[in-house]
Amino acid sequence: MKGIISKIHELARYHNEVSPELAKAKDIKLGLRNADGSGVVVGITSKGTVIGYERIPRPDGTGFDVKAVPGRLLYCGYDAVELARQIQSEDRFGFEEVAYLLLTGELPGEQDLEHFCDTVARKRALTKMERAMLMQEAQNDNQMFALHAVISHLSRCDPDPVSTEIEDVIETCISLIAKFPTVVAYNHKVARYRRGDDLIMMRPDPKLSTAENFLYMLRGERPTRDEALLFDLALMLHAEHGGGNNSTFAVRTVSSSGANTYMAICAGIASLSGHLHGGANEAVMMMIQSIKKNVSDWEDREEVKAFLEKILDKKAHDRAGKIYGLGHAVYTLSDPRCDVLKAKALQVAVKKEQIAELRLMDLVAEIGCELLMERKGQIVAPNVDYYSGFVYKVLGIPMDLFTPIFAMSRVVGWSAHRIEQIIQAKLIRPAYVTSLPQEYAYVPLRLRKQAEEPREQSQG
User: Fold this and answer.
1) For 336, what's the count of Cα atoms within 13 Å in the CB-facing half-sphere?
2) Where in the sequence numbering do the catalytic residues fall?
């Protein structure tokens, strides 16, 4: 078997790899990216607006130049960071309010917010059948695999899971927004049970917010208000990030085919499980652990720099040559979510005596950005995932839950975009062009020779 697998591998690489010259000749936007790195515009949304650059028309009218600007993120036209700051300044939990905004396009009044929160609270608890399905996935140690399986199976508890009527879709989306934290917490509890821990599954408390409930179900005791507000902030900042991020685009694409809500949301989970999209905060914390282990003086700039150079040279840590958490697909000068999350994390870090690690992370970010500019000419800044992993660590959340928590928050954005995509009612169907130079005539099997070399083809 190994021989044929190797042969297929060799031929697949030969015929599937695309040279930069061929992509340029055919004017192909690989990865739906323009030549300047910006995303190809393929849709329109009222949900999230991600700003990291502006296009400046050239004086001669030949096109545009791209200028990096400080990052901004808007939710339905509202500055997402300012929205989170204002809600927190009122000493309130805001994740549910952000969810209402993204689903409706409007900030709720007091009565509407109360009714929405009550609806979410009623839907958080799992039924006996839903808990039984969750137990079936207990042997799956990969928490993203388990989450994907459970959310898919929840369709069995829905009397009409395939409906794409807007009101039915809205009800299902709200149910999933409510149940995600419960599923994530229970999946972790059951996985630990299979490894020998006692199984204690706390029922969600209808009087608690989403942030409070998750920490309560995970720990078995209520969090402090400061801890819950910090977690609520992280949920608000991760809830939405435009229609072009990989998982949201996957949800919109699957939704456009007429697929049901469960399958569409599972597409988002599947996308988020990929290391190029989700998992960044986990990678950051693993890198920081490696730095802490190999750098004796966390405040010694030269020692930290020397180790980061080893990382970039593929001689240290995972030997991938990457400093995780620096840079972003859209943001260049800054990630607007970063400062507000870091400031809130600082308050909790001081109380939990973990300020030294946060200072080390600041130093790593500062030096890492300088090194990437020196070596690659790249202007980068820490992204939100650079600090979100530290936030979860301070809150005592296990690392294998970092990406499921991302999904727990982003299901709000996925739901909002699914509803919007169904209303827009347009199948997403981009075009691909062939890389082959010609059409080939069929050769009967008995006349084919065992090829020693792949069939010759042009890539230019």
Assistant:
1) 24
2) 277, 328, 385
φ and ψ of 326, to 5 deg: -110, 130
* Cα–Cα distance list, 123 to 67, 96, 171, 223 (Å): 46, 13, 10, 21
Other CB atoms within 10 Å distance of the CB of residue 404? 25
- 434 burial (CB, 10 Å; 0-12 / 13-18 / 19+) is exposed
Per-residue pLDDT of the chain (460 residues; tens, 9 = 90+): 668 888 888 888 888 888 888 888 888 888 888 877 778 889 999 999 999 988 888 888 787 888 889 999 999 999 999 999 999 999 999 999 999 999 999 999 999 999 999 999 999 999 999 999 888 865 678 999 999 999 999 999 999 999 999 999 999 999 999 999 999 999 999 998 888 888 889 999 999 999 999 999 999 999 999 999 999 999 999 999 999 999 999 999 999 999 999 999 999 999 999 888 888 899 999 999 999 999 999 999 999 999 999 999 999 999 999 999 999 989 989 999 999 999 988 888 888 788 999 999 999 999 999 999 999 998 999 999 999 999 999 999 999 999 999 999 999 999 999 999 999 999 999 988 888 888 999 999 988 877 556 666 545 4
Domains of the chain by start residue, with CATH: 1-28+433-460 (no CATH), 71-275+400-424 (1.10.580.10), 280-393 (1.10.230.10)
Contact 336, 69 (CB under 8 A): no
Taking each helix axis as running N to C, give the angle between helix 166-194 and helix 210-219, from 0 to 180 degrees, rounded to the nearest 10: 20
Coil, strand or helix: which one is 75? strand
Which amino acid is it at 233? Answer: L
Those residues with Cβ within 8 angstroms of residue 70's Cβ, 6 or more apart along the chain or in another chain: 333, 334, 336
- Distance, in Å, from the CA atom of 68 to the CA atom of 64, rounded to the nearest integer, reads 13
For residue 55, the cross-strand partners are 66
Count Cα atoms within 13 angstroms, Cβ side, for 233: 32
User: Tokens representing 180?
Assistant: 């995600």
Question: What SS3 class is residue 428?
Answer: coil
Q: Which two tokens stand for residue 429?
A: 């169907």
